């Protein structure tokens, strides 16, 4: 589920509720990709795909900052490369992808330091899920051979629908085809 270039990942932890992958970038930063159990839906475990910089001093994953070091495409490919690994170990489970910038409190936090001068709608909100969806839209025909995708839109109902390329979603739910 990746492009041609990605960083080498290491599996740091693997148990039934938590899968942790790590990789280093040439700039010396250590990144973490985390698949953590969040709920059971339709008798399947649903895991959240989390990602961020690892702060060695605090042991925390920083998932709400953007560090533009010119390797965004490689990092995206590396994060996405963990999805087939996850489904190799959990073929009956699901993975949800959503951005930390999709949280309800994101616009208020963003406005504190943002230079875009947004008024009602924060232009940076949902930026990360748009990047994932853009990748999915571009590669949809090949990916649907292996995976089933559902999207959650901004509507008031919290029902996932069959993923439609080009439509805006707040999160994407992925199942592996049997």
UniProtKB/TrEMBL annotation:
It comes from the Bacteria. InterPro entries: DUF6934. This is Uncharacterized protein. It comes from Algoriphagus boritolerans DSM 17298 = JCM 18970.
């Amino acid at each position: 589920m990746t492009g041609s270039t990605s960083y080498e990942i290491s599996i740091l932890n693997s148990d039934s509720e938590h899968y942790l992958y790590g990789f280093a970038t040439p700039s010396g930063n250590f990144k973490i990709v985390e698949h953590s159990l969040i709920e059971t839906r339709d008798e399947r475990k649903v895991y959240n795909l989390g990602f961020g910089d690892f702060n060695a001093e605090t042991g925390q994953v920083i998932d709400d900052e953007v560090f533009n070091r010119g390797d965004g495409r490689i990092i995206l490919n590396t994060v996405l490369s963990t999805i087939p690994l996850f489904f190799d170990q959990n073929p009956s489970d699901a993975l949800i992808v959503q951005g930390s910038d999709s949280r309800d409190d994101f616009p208020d936090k963003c406005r504190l330091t943002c230079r875009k001068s947004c008024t009602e709608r924060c232009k940076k909100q949902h930026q990360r899920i748009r990047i994932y969806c853009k990748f999915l839209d571009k590669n949809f025909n090949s990916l649907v051979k292996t995976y089933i995708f559902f999207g959650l839109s901004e509507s008031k109902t919290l029902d996932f629908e069959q993923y439609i390329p080009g439509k805006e979603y707040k999160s994407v739910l992925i199942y592996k085809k049997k």
